[in-house]
Amino acid sequence: MRRAVCPGSFDPLHNGHVEVITRAAGLFDEVVVAVSTNYAKKHRFTLDERLAITRETFTALPNISVVPMGDGLLAEFCREQDAGVIVKGLRTGRDFEYELPMATMNRQLTDVETVFLPGMNSYLHLSSTLLKEVQSLGGEISQFVPEAVMRRLTADDGVA
Ligand code: PNS
Predict the structure, then answer these.
(1) Are 57 and 12 in contact, with CB atoms under 8 Å apart?
(2) Which end of the chain is more exposed for a tag (fewer CB within 10 A), N or C?
(3) What three-state secondary structure class fits 4?
(4) What is the model's pLDDT at position 158?
(5) What's the gap between Cα 63 and its chain centre?
(6) Type and span of the H or E element at 77
(7) Alpha-carbon dihedral sign for residues 67, 70, 74, 77
(8) What would the pLDDT profile of 81-122 be if each residue is shown by its tens digit?
(9) Among 146, 137, 159, which residue's Cα sits nearest to residue 12?
(10) Active-site residue, from 14, 50, 91, 152
(11) Among this protein's residues, is 128 annotated catalytic?
């Protein structure tokens, strides 16, 4: 049984993430989506919201589970989950330069391999940071994020 981990902060989850995670679910028996908390970052959504959004988005894919990653090492998390592979999407060469040292370090730490999936052209410009900026300045982002994200953004607008 081959289990892979798709890690990220997913703040918010966007269609580029969804596409890569869905493809990973086609390649591996089980995919664990690991939702991280980065205390250095100010998150738009709480950990519980990000977990709920991700679970709702992948509810139709039974081999995907969504769990909190905690704030420890990803390599240790993979060992605890009995997952031999980390799956990451790559948008640009810059992503590759950023990811390569981490992939090598993770492999040296616990033997976990990293598999890179090239992102689809239509999603290469998407990043959570850019989407947060566009949305906070009043831009329409519904075409770039799953419905579960929009539902929460719309609910927040209603309260404000
Ligand atoms: O979506 P993000 O914020 O780019 O996700 C980054 C994440 C969670 C994949 C990365 O921060 C990470 O791997 N964190 C775990 C901490 C760790 O293992 N650090 C050493 C990396 S070699």
Answers:
(1) no
(2) C
(3) strand
(4) 54
(5) 16
(6) helix 74-80
(7) negative
(8) 999 999 999 999 999 999 999 999 999 999 999 999 999 999
(9) 146
(10) 91
(11) yes
